[in-house]
Every structure is written in structure tokens, then in C-alpha cells.
Amino acid sequence: xxLANLLDEDLIACDMTVTNKQDAIKxxxxxxAKKYPDHDYDAILExxxxxxxxxxxxxxxGIAFPHARTDAVDEMYVAxxxxxxxxxxxxxxxxxxxxxxxxxxxxxxxxLYLQTLSAFAAFGRQQGNLDRVVKAKTPGAVIDxxxxxxxxxxxxxxxxxxxxxxxxxxxxxxxxxxxxxxxFRYRLSALAVVDDQGTLLGQITDKxxxxxxxxxxxxLISNLNYSMDVESFEExxxxxxxxxxxxxxxxxxxxxxxxxxxxxxxxxxxxKDLRRVFVTEGEKLVGVLLRKDIVHMIIRG
Length: 301
Known about the structure:
Number of strands: 12
Strand content: 15-25%
CATH topology of the largest domain: Mannitol-specific EII, Chain A
Helix content: 25-40%
Largest sheet: 6 strands, mixed
Low-confidence stretches: 216-221
Mean pLDDT: 86
CATH class of the largest domain: Alpha Beta
Number of domains: 2
CATH superfamily of the largest domain: Mannitol-specific EII, Chain A
Shape: elongated
CATH architecture of the largest domain: 3-Layer(aba) Sandwich
Distance between the termini: 21 Å
């Protein structure tokens, strides 16, 4: 089923004059309430805004996907709004919001909700889609523009739907200092190690960094009289530019393809107690799927 099949001309606002996302959400809810009045829209608005408090749903690329799973509705509603001048809200890439896709769904159809959210994200990633939609003058033209993108609502969520595409990577020749700086900057516990062609070689985690500072940690733990101090870490700092990734990285990582089913990936991660799996195309790294992202998407939406 194509994404456009889920859209209703009555739930599309072609030229919103609001200046921020919260007002855009309220305007789109008014469209839904006008067509489907028998719902508690104060409760629905609260659910949507609560979700925004947990995490801003601005996707970047000029698009936001405010949404909520709430039993205040009994079926899924999708409302779309255009703001050609752009909203004032801060976005991840500093591109003004022009397209707001509001999704409301009961808990009973969570699977369709996740698949539709994934389809909207896929639509947003395709070059030129936003421009074509923003130029649409009528609700019908908006649906036509989304139809022409050929984006489909897939039957199953796959790795490509949840994976992070902008993977932070290092090379074997990079220093421990660079690894530590990248981990701190991006709040990561591991980095992919790739060669000059983008081939995945392995990973380096925060565990390897600590072990570099405490190579005899097992002896230290077994010695009950040992008093831990920072001397080992101070020594590590003195040579962090000289220690290279190739001396520390591990090759015991797991990989999946773009089309691996999320259910199967999640089962593997549980069985093997994995925090991440890398997504490859051939031997090339194309993404990373984190356990916390699966939890975030499935549990929080």
C-alpha cells in the first residue's frame, strides 16, 4: 500500500499561517475534530504535546512528525499541513519546518502506526520530495505529490527503517585521542572501524579504552589490598596520541542487511546480548542499529 492511500483531502492544510509547531499541531487537530468530532481532543492534544516533551519530533529536512498513541481515538488519523514560509521552531539541521505530518493512533494498531511513521521518514529522505509537496496548491495536489514518490507502507519493519545512517566512524590509523573525542562529542559508547573504501572492519568501544588504561585489571581486582588511583589513566593520557585504533579494535561485531526484519534483529540482539548491530551492503557499512533505538521506537513511538 502506498503512503498516499492513507491521506484524506479533508485532513490537509495547504497554506498554514501559524508560526510555530505547537500552533500547527492545534490547527491540524481542528481539521480532524471537524470531520471526527466524537473524541476528547483536549486529551489528544495533551498526548501529542507530552510526546514532544519527551523528544522533539522534528526530523530535519524541513519535516516534523508529531504523533501520539492514544486510546482517545479508535482508528488512525493522518493530518498534513504545509507552511511555505517555514516555522520558527529550532530543527536538528536548522532547515525551517515546512511540512507537518500529524499521526494519531490507538494502541491496538501500533504496527500500522510504526510502519506509517517509517514510510513518512522514507519520504522525507528522498531528494526533492519536500519541494514538490510545498509547491502543491490544493489538498489533492499534495496527495498526488506523495503518490508520485512511490513510497509504500511496508508490511514489516526492517533494519533500514530504524537504522542510523550517519554513522560516526574511525580508521585503523586514528589515535585513541580521536576515538575518545568522538565518543564524547556524539555521546556514543562505540565507533565503527572502516577502511578507506568504507568496508566495515570492526568496532572500538569504551571498554577497549578503559582496558588500555588498565591492562592488568584482572590482577588488580583479585588483589583485595589494591587501592585504585588515577595513575593508570594519567599514563594513558600521556600516550593517547600514540595508541592507534588498530591496536585496540575488535572484530566480534554482528552485521545485518538493510532488509533484515526488525523482529529478527531484536531477537538476535537479546539472544547475544548486543547493544548494536551494523548494517552493511556487501562489505560496505551503511548504517547502525542500536538496541536503545528499537526500544525508543517500539515502546515510545
